[in-house]
């Protein structure tokens, strides 16, 4: 190591260099402290509201929007759970009707007309519900006209299935159509600048679109913390 003296005006500065002469040893740059962003790159504000009162009831009052705002893993879980519970409940109702009427013990009797043909146990009742709900209609299991309670249950099943399909499939469609992922391909400049523009100090930054497709009716909203 060697020391050199450089003169700046009337002052002297000692500069330490390496013996190889490759250059001056500079102190390591200070690492920037990573600050928590007020607004994420996707536009979400990192603000948590607390002590508002009645938060849970307000979310449940608008259940559809709450399901749309949930993450995908919770949407898929609720989607599968709702259909599973609805299928098991309706299959249990068909099995209960067959059990009350005694169809389970007389199902193999050709002279007896059951409520639902070829339903012997709970798995066969479950298969009958899936075949009718999904409009598969294999023809092996079918409802007869000797069972008015079965006809009423069939109407209730059709209405309930339509409501569940409309609610869950509509929720999934709206969630898939939201442009949240599209915002990740919009890049903002890492630093902002303040400069004179039209005689006024103006805050300026740059926005870049990574995709070739243009955004229709795009809007930019900024928040300034002063």
Automatic annotation (TrEMBL):
Domain Inward rectifier potassium channel C-terminal span(s) in chain numbering: 186-226
GO cellular component, one term: plasma membrane
Keyword Transport found: yes
Catalytic activity: K(+)(in) = K(+)(out)
Cited Pfam families: IRK, IRK_C
UniProt GO molecular function: G-protein activated inward rectifier potassium channel activity
Comp. bias intervals (Polar residues): 14-25
Protein location: Membrane
Domain (Potassium channel inwardly rectifying transmembrane): residue spans on this chain: 39-179
Regions that span the bilayer: 76-100, 112-130, 150-174
Family: Belongs to the inward rectifier-type potassium channel (TC 1.A.2.1) family.
Cross-referenced PANTHER family: G PROTEIN-ACTIVATED INWARD RECTIFIER POTASSIUM CHANNEL 1, INWARD RECTIFIER POTASSIUM CHANNEL
The protein's name in its UniProt record: G protein-activated inward rectifier potassium channel 1
Source species: Lates japonicus
